[in-house]
Specification:
The protein is an alpha+beta fold. It has helices at about 5, 10-30, 140-155, 165-180, and strands at about 35, 40-45, 55-60, 65-70, 75-80, 85-95, 100-105. It folds into 2 domains: about 30-125, Immunoglobulin-like; about 130-190, no CATH class. Strands 1-2-7-6 form a 4-stranded antiparallel beta sheet, with no helix packed on it. A 3-stranded antiparallel beta sheet has the order 3-4-5, with no helix packed on it. The radius of gyration is 24 Å and the shape is elongated.
Length: about 190
């Protein structure tokens, strides 16, 4: 993220984020598929002509390659995946003879994808809001750490103290209550 973004006011940032989201959505809408991701997987829905049968489809899922098309015709999509996948855990199915649902298992389950195929428009992965329900999948310690990071990030954005700073303030207040004879008016807290 460039430092130009940091110089913007909160309102300018929100306007820029909104414009970026709209541009991103417009770019994504031009793709011959819709896609959605979690940290560990990517799902695509590729519309095909109604009445398409599985035997009419030509689907290739490789470690870093994806192609979908109808036999004997130009591919609907074809290219290099932006990241590697686990081929043995990735699948495709034909739904209602009008859409190919492709499920890709990411090799690196800790990384958001900017796009599916390298030549397609990218999304800003720093703006992804992970599904909160997925926090329940994490073990207690990791979940606590993620929730603390999310809380601290929100606090910082609002100009409020982080959880560590709140703990320090609480400790100082307790100490002051316990020692009313000490004068803290000139104290510098770091």
């Amino acid at each position: 993220m460039s430092s130009d973004y940091d110089k913007l006011t909160k309102e300018e940032r929100q306007a820029k984020d909104k414009a970026d989201r709209e541009r991103e959505a417009a770019e994504q809408a031009t793709l011959p598929y819709k896609w959605h991701q979690e940290l560990g997987e990517v799902d695509l829905i590729v519309p095909v002509p109604k009445g398409t049968r599985g035997k009419n489809l030509d689907v290739i899922i490789g470690k870093q390659k994806l192609a979908v098309g109808l036999k004997g015709q130009d591919k609907i999509l074809e290219g290099t995946l932006c990241k590697e996948i686990k081929v043995e855990d990735s699948t495709w199915t034909l739904e209602d003879q009008e859409a190919v649902h492709i499920h890709l298992e990411k090799l690196n389950k800790q990384q958001w994808w900017e796009n599916v195929l390298t030549h397609h428009p990218k999304i800003d992965t720093t703006k992804i809001q992970p599904e909160n329900s997925k926090l329940s999948d994490l073990d207690g310690e990791t979940r606590g750490m993620v929730e603390k990071m999310m809380f601290d990030n929100q606090q910082k954005q609002m100009g409020k103290p982080t959880s560590d700073e709140l703990k320090k303030i609480e400790a100082i207040q307790k100490f002051q209550k316990a020692h009313p004879e000490l004068d803290f008016s000139q104290a510098k807290i770091s």
